[in-house]
Amino acid sequence: MKKRKFLAFLSVFMLGLLALIVNPTPARAQAAPGVKIADSISDFSGTQGQENWFYGYVGDQLYVPYFEEMSAYTGGSWQVDPNTKLSSESAKPSKAGSKKWPIRRWKSEVDGDITITGQLAKAELGGDGIKGYIFVDGERVWSQKIAGDARQGVNFNIKATVKKGSDVDFVVGPRKDADLDGTKFIATIFGTANDPRAEVGAWETVPLPPNQDDWMQAVHTAVLPNGKVLIANGSSNRNTLSKDGDKVEFSDGVDSTDYDVVNNTSLFDPETGTYQRIDSPPAVQNGQSNDLFCSGHIHLLDGNVLFVSGTNRYYPGENFEGSKQTNIYNWKENKWTTAGLFNEGRWYPSLVPLADGKIVIFSGLKFGKPGQIAHTIEIYDPTTKKLSYIDLDYIEDSPFNVKVEYEDKYEYNGKQITKKIDAYDSIDVYPRIFPTADGRLMITGDGAGKFPLEIHASNKSYLMSVIDNGNGNLDVKFEVAADRKELSKVYGSGLLDPYYQGDVLLVGGLVDTNSIAYGWPQFPDLNESLKAKGARISTSLERWISPENSGETYGKWEAIDNFLDQPRAMNMAVILPTKEVLVINGGEYAEYDPIYEPVLMTPEENAPGGYHAKSMSSAQFPRLYHNGALLLPDARVLSIGGNPRRAARAKDGKVRVDDLPDADDYYVLAKLSDKPNQPKGSGKVNSDAEYDSFLKNYYADPKNSYFAEEDSLPFVPAEIWQAEIFSPPYLFKPGARPEITKAPATLNYGQSGTISVKDATQDGSLVLVKLGTVTHSLDYGQLLAPATIKNVALGTPSAISFTAPENANLYPPGYYMMFYVNDIGKPSKATMVKLQA
Questions:
Q1: For residues 645 and 252, is the Cβ–Cβ distance under 8 A?
Q2: CB-hemisphere CA count at 13 Å for 91?
Q3: Which of 550, 636, 616, 605 has the alpha carbon at shortest distance from 205?
């Protein structure tokens, strides 16, 4: 069990359940002024550290200098043994033989004065009574004895001063006879000053699965209609590791036809903070390799998730070709099926839903032709199972028929050379494409180009229409839209603007290079050559103003330079129910120098770009390439994954993440030390026997535990296996959180409806946020559809009458999370609704 320092003289107390809980029988203490920041009842969970609460006990002797976490959670209680329990409402200390007394600990995230109010009472009459204690950082600030036959409890209202990281411990201990010492210890903690979390939010770390074999990264993630998160990785971007004595060799790629190699799929339950490993699709299907790694995915109308393509095979030089596979995850039955083979391989495709439920699949690398982008699209009809295949080389004004000019810069014999290039445009891999209000699709030009693909240097954007010619025959039409203010970028994020409906936003990314190795200190020559060509990481916010909002036939583009306070690539942009946007994860380079602080974009009409940007509190873990971030149904944001380079898989299945790219030897096991900027030759390679200790130390202190030689920044493992959850500032605003108590399960476009809301306000909002599905710095599912509130009848609960969104082009059918947001911007938890024609 994990041991946490507790006060060295904490005497025999055992926190008995600080069951800080609201006891309906005894009266609650008078509410303290300030913002409620912790509540032992509503915050109670089966996850250590959730809402900053930890559940433990003091061992079998007095003055124990540590606090041990309980490891067993069952039936709604934490337990050490059948006699020592801790639940949301009660604590049961044990004296006979073991002297184990439960402790509930709250770890402060605030600095300043707090007020702790509550009540201590016996839950079982008889015995010798109990004694309750409250400690702050080991100093006793309150204690009280309760007689065994006392029928009334004691109220308390105490003040204390804490700092961020302070421990507030609630302890209940038996006196002589523990048999009748069940205790209720009710407590709420208020901040007497403004809660800083209401300004910068707060983080919590999700515990790793108990079985290390279940630790995995998260290349592909999707929120399901049951609120769980599907995590799929396939072969997971790895090399093959071979060892012969002291000799270590890294081979490019893995065998993706081996099921053990591609079987890396799980479900995450945000409510419990736990994972369930599930089966992956077969490694060989329809007679071909079937690897989900680098596929595209989107929700179908029934909430199932369609995966298209993926890796057919790895090629030397870190090149790839796409498979023709389809895989469908059924969220109700927890099983995989296939829709058969597509016409073309599509490694790195984008899937875009249409108003009638069809899915348009763009781009991707071809089958059998590594490094070649498909100049075709396929349109899948989930209802008829029909697939339409269209070659864009023969379509007027498609990007493949439009010439662009750009400058190629390089150094030659110490001189800067600039050449003008005349070439045809393209649609990049993982292109950033969005639906518009009139049914056309906006092809922005941004994507996720990857070396050794040619750089997509263009300032063009396009609008594409899908035309139904009858009898299921489809065609497409292209229009060259407005020119952008910047060159196209890779590995920035994009989204439909949740506030200025119909507009498109692009945030961050790499400019003038497809090399995500740019910035690695191991490659100084590469960095210099790319800088000479003009490569950089963007700080801009770009906006395509839709025709409806701009009055221009093809819309217009604007760009706000230095919108972000530092360059950012591999970032995600998460739409929040308040119509704010959270820019999260990524780094100053694509695979190096992580940025830990999210940026909250709040709508502000007079601000440049229409948003005010503010830095939030810092995460613990670095999340670069292959990270993900998703809005959860409880309005928190899941931050997961991170894969700044290839990990290495040994033939026995063990995965090493302590490797580094090397200019001479491709990859090597990293030489690490516990201090930054150590000279070459001073570090040490982890032996196989030391590897588990390396992982334990890293996850205990990711920012300070290891450094590579000659590097000032903390070492980042090749895969990040521990997730975090960010609670935005709105969750810490004062007052009760609204709750949707009744809502329809389905909504038709433009339909009138009514929901019941507890703690509603006169001036609130109702929004639908489409379920997210994330890979490679883009959420292909998320968008915010506002519902129109028609009438508010305040009561207990309140009745909110509304009209559902009307535009199926802009808000395609499928599952959405319905949030009610009160007048100060505090959202409810979501209820799932299906929006349909």
A1: no
A2: 35
A3: 636
Helices (H) and strands (E) in the chain, counts: 5, 70
As a whole number of angstroms, the distance between CA 747 and CA 818 comes to 11
Q: How far apart are CA 265 and CA 281, in angstroms?
A: 9
Which is higher by pLDDT, 304 or 76? 304
Query: What type of residue is 776?
Result: H
Indicate the average pLDDT of the chain. 90
Tokens of 441: 């699709």
Give me Rg for the CA atoms of the chain. Answer: 28
Query: Reading across the β-sheet that carries 53-58, which strands appear in turn?
Result: 3-5, 66-69, 53-58, 101-107, 167-174, 130-136, 139-146
Handedness of CA 349, 223, 580, 803 (dihedral sign): positive
Q: Would you state the pLDDT for residue 754?
A: 98
The total number of residues shown for the chain amounts to 837
Q: What is the pLDDT of residues 487-523, one digit of tens each?
A: 899 999 999 999 999 999 999 999 999 899 999 999 9
CB 342 within 8 A of CB 378: yes
Element (H, E) at 482: none
Contact 222, 265 (CB under 8 A): no
What is the identity of the amino acid at 475?
D
Q: How far apart are the C-alpha atoms of 510 and 537, rounded to whole Å?
A: 5
Task: Tell me 426's DSSP state.
Answer: -
How far is residue 151's CA from residue 29's CA, in Å, rounded to a whole number?
17
pTM for this predicted structure: 0.82
SS3 691: helix
Burial of 382 (0-12, 13-18, 19+ CB in 10 A): middle
3-class SS shares of the chain: helix, strand, coil, % to 5: 5, 40, 50
Residue 149 tokens, joined: 């036959």
pLDDT tens readout for residues 99-133: 677 899 999 887 788 899 988 888 777 777 788 88
Q: To which residue do tokens 């009514």 refer?
A: 754
Query: CA nearest 225: which of 835, 795, 771, 600?
Result: 771
Give residue 190's pLDDT band: very low, low, confident or very high (50, 70, 90): confident
Per-residue 3-state assignment (H helix, E strand, C coil) for 759-805: CCCCCCEEEEEECCEEECCEECCCCEEEEEEEEEECCCCEEEEEECC
Tokens, residue 732: 């810490």
Q: Exposed (0-12), middle (13-18) or buried (19+): which is 167, by Cβ within 10 Å?
A: buried
Rounded (5°) CA angle 703-704-705: 110
Q: List pLDDT tens digits, range 527-558.
A: 998 988 889 999 999 999 999 999 999 999 99
pLDDT 10s digits, 701-710: 999 999 999 9
